[in-house]
């Protein structure tokens, strides 16, 4: 990522801060950790994440949230401590500094995600879900403009169907196989909607938050060429992979920054083509998005952007941007840029190692302890494993039980439906049950009707600070489960 090199006050501050980056290393190594320090990565983990080993935590929930590096907190703190930042978009120096930070953060997002600034714009949102909602509420859905989604979608994507149905648009799901790979083609599913032209909105999940399986993003371009608008949910993919929006050629993408570099929470981005933004009709405007509101009267003009004449497009979220957190986004993206390529390789190694080691753990009677869900194709896997644990008679163990046992050993993992009920049901071979079970059921009704106590899987996920020790501690935990009778 290349930050702006103009002569702004902010750039000067950044230069100074970069200079002071070398001083960040005033962390005393924990003696056991220092003893084990062997590689550049060990040093990185000690300097940036010593709290993991000092607390004895085995953190395996990077798909939930990444952990923030120490240097990011320090740089952010130092910047805030030294500068006067006011509410942006005014002429005071305090305000102008915030506006410059905002501009630089926007450019940083475009650079990091390789999105051409002549085509794409950045709307800062509170998270990925808020970006999806902004599009859903403003997209011109209609009887011939459907919403097309993967079954393997986070609930925040399913929520978009509320807006589609209000506009009498169909919501069409394309099916996902229990390998985690997509079976029906989204554009084929929606191909009957209109002979040509604009057929609706396809929302792709680039990487499953349940299985960690990466989808074929060549389909985005195919959908676009077939006349669909396209959004890519890169919330999971971007945690351990470099993403190029120019290559994917999507009309829009959504992301949450805490999933990449852990801090700050409450900030994400909707990165979208200006042309796509012009199709949107917002049902609401607020301070920050508008230039003029005629009162009394109906005229509204937008603050900035390619078309200022009407209340069609938007360039920021409503109300004041989280401007104090934006310096941390600039630093965080720079941090990611430095580490992401190595991170991708390291996570792949950890996943391969853990998959192989887990797959051979068995009870004395030969029954496997764990089913690892999803394709065996290592190239299609991100940093996540979806697991079902078994008793020694082969029956499934309630995922919640594994989370409790893991938690007793300071292993942070996740269990349940993971905000992606369809994919979880598919992995558990329950898709048909869910489809035929009726509507208006609470989760406990659903369990009762299905005659089960639990419906979910166990998820472990590696990320920016993960090392082999983390994987080995999880594997030792699993081996103990296979030798004891705790799960029977
Ligand atoms: C693939 C995917 N999409 C969307 C989301 C929603 O992200 P957020 O809750 O940050 O809005 C998540 C969160 O886990 C996710 O993993």
TrEMBL record:
One of its GO terms (molecular function) is molybdenum cofactor sulfurtransferase activity. GO terms for biological process: molybdopterin cofactor metabolic process. It comes from the Eukaryota. Residues 58-474 form the Aminotransferase class V domain. InterPro entries: Aminotrans_V_dom, PyrdxlP-dep_Trfase, PyrdxlP-dep_Trfase_major, PyrdxlP-dep_Trfase_small. This is Aminotransferase class V domain-containing protein.
